[in-house]
From TrEMBL:
PPR repeats: 238-272, 273-307
Record keywords, A-Z: Repeat
KW Repeat (keyword) present: yes
Top-level taxon of the source organism: Eukaryota
Native source organism of the sequence: Rosa chinensis (China rose)
NCBIfam families associated with the record: PPR
Family annotation (PANTHER family): MEMBRANE-ASSOCIATED SALT-INDUCIBLE PROTEIN-LIKE, OS03G0201400 PROTEIN
PROSITE patterns reported for this sequence: PPR
Family: Belongs to the PPR family. P subfamily.
Keyword Transcription regulation: no
InterPro entries from the UniProt entry: PPR-containing_protein, PPR_rpt, TPR-like_helical_dom_sf
Protein name from the UniProt record: Putative pentatricopeptide
Pfam families in the cross-refs: PPR, PPR_2
Length: 379
């Protein structure tokens, strides 16, 4: 008798599950039909008095509407707001894969950014791989994931994604690799950057112009200017390479070499801008080389990068130099303004304090703060 009851209970449970599945499949067909056939589908779905949308039902609907990724994405967002839909990892990954497959990178990024904060790399990559089954989009999708980790400054997470891609036999895009290499540069992880660059080359990722510019910046940080010159000799050059050389030589006090490369830029029709000349000016201000300061300022006036009498431009000049981290040059103009009793904007004092603090020039920052207090300015 007990066995009969147990058998009946199991049969009833199976029957109920089967009926639920039929009902879900019917509802998925009904919703997807409205989505695909009606341009203004919102009122039609509202008339159905739909229950709370669950992930399995959502995935069935998306499977039927995947021919129109934008529509699928619109429904995804609408369902979260109107059907109390709480997407799981699988649902998120599926909508990201669909979006990226049709070039909808902008709306996919905030969705992925959320997943990066809430899921471990291996779990996220695994779910993305499942979402890409039956397509040839895995390398592109995981390259996008790698790029997102890198742009958030999550270097270790980016390296993990790269490893997972290698295991899966995927070659990341040069764009994604550049993003990770750039994150390493910004984090002053020079040694790690060189290691990763070597791995890139071994795995068959072909460098582009931006890769070379990052390599040049690493070389500049290491003070290996002669290696940058080799890149120029190989024909890999643009204004950034010359600007890096000018900046590097200016920081080391080799102003003859700095002016030499400024001339080469002009000869090669790569006209140096405010930023490049500011590197020489900043280096000369730091070392107290008055002759070089006067020389470079004359050139900047001739090229109309500075006004002959910048009385009304001190605010903009100081802010520009602070934004470029040229604090010694910014300090020179700041002192000139103070000596000439010119009233600067509150934002200019703020820029000076922020830039000096960033460069760990605490004594100078305190001096600027005293000027702010003496003048009773709000920052």
């Amino acid at each position: 008798m007990l066995l009969l009851r147990k058998a009946y209970s199991t049969t009833s449970s199976t029957s109920l599950t089967w009926r639920t599945q039929i009902k879900q499949a019917h509802l998925a067909s009904q919703i997807s039909s409205i989505l695909l056939q009606r341009r203004n589908w919102v009122p039609f779905l509202q008339n159905l008095n739909l229950p709370k949308l669950n992930p399995p039902l959502f995935l069935q609907i998306i499977h039927k509407t995947q021919c129109n990724p934008q529509l699928s994405l619109d429904f995804f967002n609408w369902a979260k707001s109107n059907l109390r839909f709480e997407p799981d990892l699988k649902s998120h990954c599926q909508i990201i894969q669909l979006s990226l497959g049709s070039g909808l990178t902008r709306p996919a990024k905030p969705i992925l950014d959320t997943l990066i904060q809430t899921h471990h790399v291996s779990k996220l990559v695994q779910s993305m791989s499942q979402a890409c089954k039956g397509t040839d989009s895995l390398s592109n999708v995981l390259s996008f994931v790698l790029g997102c980790y890198a742009r958030e400054g999550l270097v270790r997470g980016g390296i993990e994604v790269y490893r997972e891609m290698s295991v899966l036999g995927c070659v990341p895009s040069v764009l994604a690799c550049n993003a990770l290499l750039n994150a390493m540069r910004q984090g002053s992880e020079t040694r790690l950057g060189w290691c990763f660059y070597g791995v890139m080359l071994r795995n068959g990722v072909l460098p582009d112009q931006f890769t070379w510019s990052l390599v040049a910046q690493f070389l500049c940080k290491d003070g290996k200017f002669e290696r940058i010159l080799r890149l120029l000799d190989l024909g890999v050059c643009d204004s950034m390479f010359y600007s890096l050389l000018v900046d590097g030589y200016s920081k080391s006090g080799n102003f003859d070499a700095a002016f030499c490369y400024l001339e080469k830029m002009s000869d090669g029709k790569l006209e140096p801008g405010f930023s490049t000349y500011s590197s020489v000016l900043d280096g000369a201000c730091k070392l107290g080389d008055v002759e070089v300061v006067e020389r470079v300022m004359r050139i900047m006036v001739e090229k109309k990068l500075l006004s002959a009498s910048p009385v009304f431009e001190y605010d903009s000049i100081v802010k520009k130099l602070c934004a470029l981290d040229k604090t010694y040059a910014a300090e020179m103009f700041f002192k000139k303004a103070c000596d000439e009793k010119i009233e600067l904007q509150g934002a200019t004092y703020g820029c000076m304090l922020q830039a000096l603090t960033k460069e760990m020039r605490i004594v100078e920052a305190i001096r600027v703060y005293r000027v702010v207090c003496e003048r009773g300015r709000a920052i």
